[in-house]
Every structure is written in C-alpha cells, then in structure tokens.
C-alpha cells in the first residue's frame, strides 16, 4: 500500500478540484482529527453495541462477538477501495460522485437514491433510539408522545449545530469522539478488569442458544451484530471539499475509523458480556434491555446516570454526523442537476459555507418519519431500520463493483493513496465480502409472518423500484452534463498535470 509517491508531488486542493471539473464552494476548515471524529461518531460503536447487544446474544450467544471481527475485516477491505477512489476524486458527496465518475450518471442515480433514503432512515432510527437515554436521564415516562418530542429535539439540535458551520461540526464531533471512547473503551476496560462475573471462555460457549438445531444457523443469524455497526466511515469522504489535503487525509481517517471503532466495540461488547450478572437470562431472551441493569449493578445509580450523559452525547454526535453526510450527498447530487429542486438544494450559504437547504431536507424528512412512526408504532421503526442497513450495504457495493469494473478496463488510481499491485485482489475480496453481507441481511426470516420475514427485501424493492421508475420516466439524468465514467482519463490527466511532475 502506498500513501504517497515520493518521486512526484500531489496537486493542491483547489487545483485538484478544478481538474475534476469543480470550483471550491466550501471553506477547508476541517482537520484530520475532525474528519476522523465525524466518521467515528457516525459509525458510533456505543450506539451500535447498545442497540443490538440483546438481539446478538439471544440469537447467537456469546460467540456472536466474533461477528465484530469478521465484519470489521470485511469493511476494512471496502474502506481501502474507498480510500483509493476518494484520493483520486476528493469531491463532496461520497457515494454519488464516486459511482458517477467510476461508471456513469444513471448508475450513480440509483446508488445515490438508495443511499439517500438509507441515510435519512438511519438518522430517524438513531434519533428514536436515543430518546430512551434522554427520558431516563430526566425521569420522563417513555410514552409515544415523549418519544416523538425527544426525537424531534435530537434532530433540531443537530440541525442547529450543523447550520453553525463546518468548524462547529468538527468541534462537536471531537467532543462526541471523546464521549464514545469513554463510553466504550473506558467503560469496557473497567467492566473487563473490575466487574467480571464470567470467564473469558464464555465467548466459546453457545449456552444452548441453538436449541435442537445447528449452531451454524444460529451464528449466521447473529451477523447483524457486526453488520449494523461497521458503516459510517464513508462520511469522512462526504465532506471532502471541507478538509485540507483530502486526497491524503481522508483515506487514513476512514481506515482509522474502522480500526479504532472495531477495537472499541470489542471492549464494549466483551465488557457487557463478562459483567452481566445473569448472562443466561439474556441469552434466553428473558431480558430485552439488559445493559441498564449491567450498568447499575457495576457502576451504581450515580455511575449509571453519568453513563447516560456520555451516551446522550454519543447519540447526538451520531445524528449530527449523519445529517452532515446526508446534506453533502444531497448537495453533490443537486450540483450536477440530478434531482428535482436541484438549484435550491445546491445553494451554499455564503456566510456559513454549508449547504443550508440540503440540511433542511436532511432534518425535515426524518422529522416526518418520526411522526409516521408515532402513528404506526415501534414495530414500524424496526421495519424501516432493517431496510436502512441493507440499503447502505447495496450502495457501498455499487462503489466497489464500479471500481473493479474500471480496474479491469485498465484504471490505475492516481491519488496519493493507492494499493498498488494489491489493488485488484483487495477489490475482488471486498466485493465478495459485500455480496455475502447483503445475502445475510436480505435472508427472509422464519417467523411465519410474511411482512416481518420479507420486510428487508420488500423495503429495498420499493426504494429501488421507485428509483428506477423515476429514472426511466422523468429521466433526471438527461439534463446533467457533469463528467462521468472518466476514471482512466482523469488518472492520466492527474499524473500528467504540471503540478504533479
């Protein structure tokens, strides 16, 4: 792997963007640490572990922790490919401009359409899941009305911070990063060292979760424990035009997001397992929300309250990062004239240098979805969340597949971060992993309830079907004349540019 080519210089940020066909629209005020914090708080191991801890244990038992290692390794392969792409194309919006330049505008339309809806649903889900922490902290009953009000509060506060500008976004993301590390690494180590009630061998004990069937099937069923956690690193690339030296810094920020996030999640998940006072009850599915009891038994009432403050900071930072990433994707999509209202959505505030109108959409649609969940009940939240996860993996693999296609045609990434001769092998492995992950996410359930068993594929089908209909009927791409499918030519121009000699 190479992060630099010592015999050649790299293009300056503004010149690199001009070669790609764009002018600077933002202020490059985000440092490497701010970029890393943005990706890490979007990935949010605290949110991921808390949300799926009980489900993972009741499905796959303590060995389900190994999904964190398996999925982390697979997503690291994907992050390496993303690193090569963003290093050549450090453009705001991530998934959309990458797929457009690697394949074409219709292909990019579908990838971005799926990814936009997956992100908007994810924003909604994280805001909804965070309401329980806030309600517990201020001693409010968890009613439907309280949940709706607190979810709206999460979304509006995050919007206000994002509206303040990139510097404030980066500052709050760094605070969120500190909260995450305290909440997952610090607490996880404390539980492992001082509150351990189980032996380490428990991670190889299924504790009877397989019943009379095969444990292999039970273990595959627990894959969501890792699959739900390891995305968000791509948000580092969504703000590429707001980062200094993005072609070098963003790839390393994405990789560090995976590595640090994975280690943090292992400490957190492992600590909860080992500190559980009644692990068998959790595995048997008798305790659907075991973490509060584990925290109270380990930290006491005051300690558990302090953890709630840390957790709230992490949830707010996660919503903040999601909104920022979604707004930049919408901006990038609109800048190329690919969606209705593109002139309005592509506007950037001259004072704050943020895509204000895209931010409004990234806040308003999740607010409307929260109202829909209030009417439809908590079951609807689980159903739309299931779509969000597979939608994001489909969009990821659209980039991986497009990169492999260009590589087979002769593309050699021209950014300062590249994998060299290992690129093809990593690309193939990343695609194989991604297809396996999509299979795991899309497998129909076995409950016998049609909607519950098929909801993931039905949700994906509705979003992709509506996107295809709009693409072929309205032809939103027909008026867009921005560059597309030019990876090989752009690589040549970047290498031959006078400033790289």
UniProtKB/TrEMBL annotation:
Transmembrane parts of this sequence: 32-53, 65-86, 107-126, 146-163, 175-194, 214-233, 253-275, 306-331, 352-374, 380-404, 416-442, 454-473
Keywords associated with the record: Membrane, Transmembrane, Transmembrane helix, Transport
InterPro entries named among the record's database cross-references: AA/rel_permease1
Subcellular location: Membrane
Record's keyword annotation contains Membrane: yes
One CC-aspect GO term: membrane
Highest taxon above the source species: Bacteria
A Pfam match: AA_permease_2
Entry membrane topology: Multi-pass membrane protein
GO molecular function, one term: transmembrane transporter activity
Subcellular location, principal: membrane
Transmembrane helix is among the record's keywords: yes
Protein name: Amino acid/polyamine/organocation transporter, APC superfamily
């Amino acid at each position: 792997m190479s992060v630099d080519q010592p015999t050649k210089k790299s293009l300056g940020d503004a010149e690199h963007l001009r070669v790609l066909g764009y002018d600077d629209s933002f202020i490059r005020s985000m440092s490497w640490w701010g970029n890393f914090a943005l990706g890490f708080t979007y990935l949010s191991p605290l949110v991921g572990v808390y949300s799926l801890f009980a489900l993972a244990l009741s499905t796959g038992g303590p060995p389900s922790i190994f999904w964190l290692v398996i999925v982390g390794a697979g997503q690291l392969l994907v992050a390496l490919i993303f690193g090569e792409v963003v290093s050549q194309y450090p453009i705001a919006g991530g998934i959309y401009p990458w797929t457009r330049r690697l394949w074409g505008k219709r292909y990019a339309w579908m990838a971005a359409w799926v990814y936009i809806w997956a992100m908007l649903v994810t924003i909604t889900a994280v805001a909804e899941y965070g309401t329980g922490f806030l309600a517990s902290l201020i001693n409010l009953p968890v009613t439907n009305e309280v949940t709706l009000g607190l979810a709206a509060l999460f979304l509006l506060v995050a919007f206000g911070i994002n509206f303040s500008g990139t510097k404030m976004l980066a500052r709050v993301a760094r605070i969120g990063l500190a909260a995450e590390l305290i909440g997952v690494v610090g607490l996880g180590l404390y539980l492992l060292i001082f509150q351990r009630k189980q032996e380490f061998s428990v991670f190889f004990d299924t504790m009877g979760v397989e019943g009379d069937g095969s444990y292999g099937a039970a273990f595959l069923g627990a894959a969501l424990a890792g699959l739900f956690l390891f995305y968000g690193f791509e948000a580092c690339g969504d703000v590429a035009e707001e980062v200094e030296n993005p072609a070098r810094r963003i790839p390393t920020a994405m990789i560090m997001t995976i590595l640090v996030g994975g280690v943090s999640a292992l400490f957190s998940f492992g600590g909860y397992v080992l500190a559980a006072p009644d692990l068998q009850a959790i595995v048997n599915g008798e305790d659907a929300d075991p973490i509060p009891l584990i925290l109270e038994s380990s930290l006491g009432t005051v300690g558990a309250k302090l953890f709630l403050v840390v957790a709230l900071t992490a949830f707010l930072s996660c919503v903040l990062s999601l909104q920022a990433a979604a707004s930049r994707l919408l901006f990038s999509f609109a800048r190329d004239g690919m969606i209705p209202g593109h002139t309005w959505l592509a506007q950037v505030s001259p004072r704050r240098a943020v895509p204000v109108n895209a931010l409004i959409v990234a806040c308003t649609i999740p607010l409307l979805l929260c109202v829909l969940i209030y009417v439809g009940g908590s079951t609807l939240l689980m159903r739309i969340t299931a779509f969000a996860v597979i939608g994001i993996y489909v969009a990821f693999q659209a980039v991986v597949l497009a990169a492999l296609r260009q590589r087979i045609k002769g593309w050699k990434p021209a950014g300062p971060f590249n994998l060299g001769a290992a690129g093809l092998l990593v690309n193939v492995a990343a695609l194989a992993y991604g297809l396996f992950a999509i299979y795991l996410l899309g497998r129909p359930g076995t409950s016998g309830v049609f909607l519950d068993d098929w909801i993931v594929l039905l949700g994906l089908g509705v979003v992709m079907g509506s996107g295809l209909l709009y693409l072929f009927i309205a032809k939103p791409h027909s008026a867009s004349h921005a560059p597309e499918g030019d990876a090989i030519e752009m690589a040549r121009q970047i290498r031959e540019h006078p400033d790289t000699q």
